[in-house]
Amino acid sequence: MTQRWTETQVAALAPDASSLAAARKLAGKWSGAGWCETALWGLCKGSGSNPYQTIVDLTGPAFRCSCPSRKFPCKHALSLLMIWSAGIVDESAEAADFAAEWIGKRVEKAAAPPRPPRTEKAATTEQRQSRIAAGLEELDTWLTDQIRTGLAQTDRSYAAFEAVAKRMVDAQAPGVADALRRLPAAVVVRANWPEVVLGRFAWLHLLIAAHAKLEALPTPLAAAVRSHIGYPTTADSVHAEPTVGDRWLTVGMRTVEEDRLHTRRTWLYGLRTGRWALILDHSFGSPAFPAHVPPLGLAAEFGLHFYPVAAPLRALLDPARGDAAPAVAELPATAGSGTIAATLTEFATATAADPWLESWPVLLRDVVPTPRGEDWVLAESDGTALALAPLAQPWRLLALSGGHPVTVFGVWTGRRLEVVAVLSAGEFHDVGPAADETASAVTATPEAASIALLGTARGAGTPPGLAHQVAAAVAALPDRDPAERLLETTAMEMAWTRGGCLPDHVEVPGGAAAADPRPVLPRPAADRLALLIESGPEFLPEWFAAARPYDYRAPDRLVGHLLEFAAADSELREAALRSAGTRGRWLADLIPRWHDLVRRDTAQSEPGDETWRLGLPPERLEWLTALRHRDPAAAREALDEAWPRESGAPKAALLGVLSAGLGPGDEQLLERGLDDRRGDVRRTSARLLARLLGSAFAGRMAGRAAVWLKSADDGPGQGPELIVEIPETLDAATVRDGFTDSTTEFGYRWNGQPDRTATRLRKLIAALPTSYWTDSLGPPQRAVTARIEDRFRQPLFDGWMDAALAQGDTDWGHALFTAGMPSNLAILRRRELFALILAGDQLHHLLGLGTSWLSELESLLPAVAHPWPPELARHLLRLFEEQARTAARRRGAPGTYASAHRSLLRTAALHLPPECAGEVTALAGRCEADDWAEAIGRLSHDLHQRSAMLEELK
Question: What's the whole-number mean pLDDT along residues 556-576?
């Protein structure tokens, strides 16, 4: 049965980002969609009267759409795949007529007998060989000229290499042209570029020499030479080779892109024959590769036809293929190379047959990633090791290993191992691309490169320090031009060192990651988490909250991704680290940039005083915070004892730790903070003292309020009045409590000038307990109606808001919210007040808002607890439908477009109950305005995604 694809798999098919963005907007325009076995179809509403017919053959994948788009796949096919992956498309017993007709034609075409193989005329073959020979002779002359005059003197620009490569294309030697085109990148980014360039030149010189004697070479070696040069090999001729039938296991995949041409390499291992195979697939524009090979870690029964070369590796598949199924358990103990010694022997055998071979697949068992200086090696238990090629994300390999022996698949180049996949927990996992894409398997020695850099016209053509076997072979060569001699010597030396490479020996350290006893995250939920980290972080808060009661640990393959996410997101950091668990702490300790993420297990003993006395500022802050949660008094005493020695910016942060569990015992230390030289420390002290309602600071503020603020009541119906009489000159005690001469802190102005008095009024009001106003102004609902000079209305309300929010006073929050804000500046804080009032009052207010108040809804809804109540969800959907109907009736009218409410729709996607997904899907189908149909369709898609992610955790 066909499995639904993930959204990541669908996104990988997009020809460009704009097609993917356009596809997401079509979620609400589908009708008649369904899928059956390997067929997926649907009708998408377009600009014309007839909907577009879209069909996807999931086995290809192959696409057909009646739209005029020239992109492949088009946005309609991508959108159809997206809603299918989200579970919105229902399965049908049979395909729709238009889909069945197209799928049937594809099946008939596949079943048609193959065409007879094409044979090339002898004259054409001879003409091509002559043209290639002439081009290679010119190239050999150019190579020796570069070495003779010196690489330092030659033109090493992209244009220079490209000119020679184009000549090779004209000579019908595309393989040689590709080798030349790879050199400019190495010249630009590599310090040892002379070694890389000389190595590639020697590789080409040897290939040219072999081509000159092509007729005398053994048939397999001659075929290898033709393959490296780029002679065409027809698929028919390869299919004529004997079929090698087996149960082939996919052990590695690697996709690269160059000039919009995507190339996928798939390595297979025959479970019965023990043979390696490499399948190459190409796709222009997008990585839409055929699904003829099993996914990573799966195996299927089919036949392969190997290219007839000296070291057969590349192959073509037979069309018929059995069902793919997990087969890692079937991997025999003797599979692949197994050991480092066997790896080197196999590679030596392969390069002896084909000297131009650049890599060979290997499967190493029971090896441990081990540091060696700044580099890494794979080591066996006795210390035998192979150098590792740097990975772009080395933590993937380390996370999967955890310091324990693992089975690794990669390609050995004769100098280093490029890891492709790791077998962990019974599955193969990709470890990502290499960090250095310009690295070359064929690299000359520094001694030979030094000669080539200066040029053989200035020195000898034989480098020193050659192995005696290579030196003897060089001595047997006939006298030649020194440049040719250097190229031939380098070619022999590279063949010797690569084929005769000896393993390294290192000391295997201990300290593997400890076991995490928690249950592992279910596979669907783990796949969802990986997708959310990569492309959907807005849903992660809900995902982590839903996952917390289960206390799952993330699978090893996701540990590094979680740490990378935790380093960038402080709000969800603790949740991500909790999921990463024991292995996450082990891995963070290995990667320098993640050291600060390491958290102590709550079961461990308390950290020592060394961290507090000698640690870095972040470590000391973390230590004090943890101690404050365990023992508030001990944390206060530690800070009080160290206070005379504290200095700099961290001082205010340390004092801010007292906000957790703030109590009367903290008052003395906070009073000391009022005398500090740093303004941020004084402000932190005043802010925290204002929360201590019975403190001396609060008493001093109440005393000032009694003098500076006078209340009067003119009688029934008039309401209270507040008169402000703040002096211009302040005494030292008042300045100590935070009243400075600053006029820029809040930006109040009066008559075009900064208003110092307004600033002082706000500070006073914010520092008073909200209960202070009961005697003078009455309850909150009456107090907020108090009359005051226009100049002071805004700072009065701002101060009340500061106090209500700091003290969590629900009554004052409700009163201030109901009274409204006296300026646009304060409107930005209405959401904070709205979050403070009771849930019932919130719901009552929101249900009273109609379509003309959508901006008010947009502002306040994020403050409502998640998920929203059903009544609120239904109310909002009704408003959306009313607005969509208005947009359809008054097309083009300002304010009716869905884009005008983009933020509200996005908030709805995050907070609507997932159970509303079906209702939203139906609403999308009823929308006549295209932009609203698209917007509600996206909302439906997001709700289905949220519903699926919550279900996967169960």
Answer: 91
**Single pTM value for the model:** 0.78
Q: CB of 939 within 8 A of CB of 920?
A: yes
User: How confident is residue 518, by pLDDT bands cut at 50, 70 and 90?
Assistant: very high
Q: What percent of the chain has pLDDT over 90?
A: 45
Q: Residue 138: in which H helix or E strand, if any?
A: helix 122-149
pLDDT of residue 604: 38
Q: Which tens digit of pLDDT belongs to each residue from 480-502?
A: 788 999 999 999 999 998 888 88
Positive or negative, the Cα torsion across 636, 637, 638, 642?
Answer: positive
| Residues counted in the chain | 954
Q: CA torsion 616→618→624→627, rounded to 10°?
A: -110
Q: How far apart are CA 21 and CA 13, in angstroms?
A: 13
Domains in the chain (CATH in brackets) are 7-111 (no CATH), 124-232+443-501 (no CATH), 237-247+258-327 (no CATH), 340-430 (2.40.50), 537-597 (no CATH), 605-661 (no CATH), 662-674+681-833 (no CATH), 838-952 (no CATH)
Backbone conformation region of residue 259, classed left if phi is above 0, alpha if psi is from -120 to 50, else beta: left
CB 912 within 8 A of CB 920: yes
Quick one: tokens of 548? 């917390």
Q: What pLDDT shows up at residue 823? A: 55
Residues 526-538 have pLDDT tens digits of: 988 988 898 778 8
Model confidence at 246: pLDDT above 90: yes
Distance CA 97, CA 147 (A): 68
Q: Tokens 């740093």 — which residue?
A: 678
Structure tokens at 383: 């210390």
Q: Alpha-carbon distance 64 to 98, whole Å?
A: 11
What is the predicted pLDDT for the residue at 838? Answer: 92
Amino acid symbol at 717:
G
| CA angle, 402 then 405 then 409, to 5° | 100
| Dihedral angle of Cα 273, 278, 279, 280, to the nearest 10 degrees | -170
Q: Answer yes or no: is pLDDT of 722 > 80.
A: yes
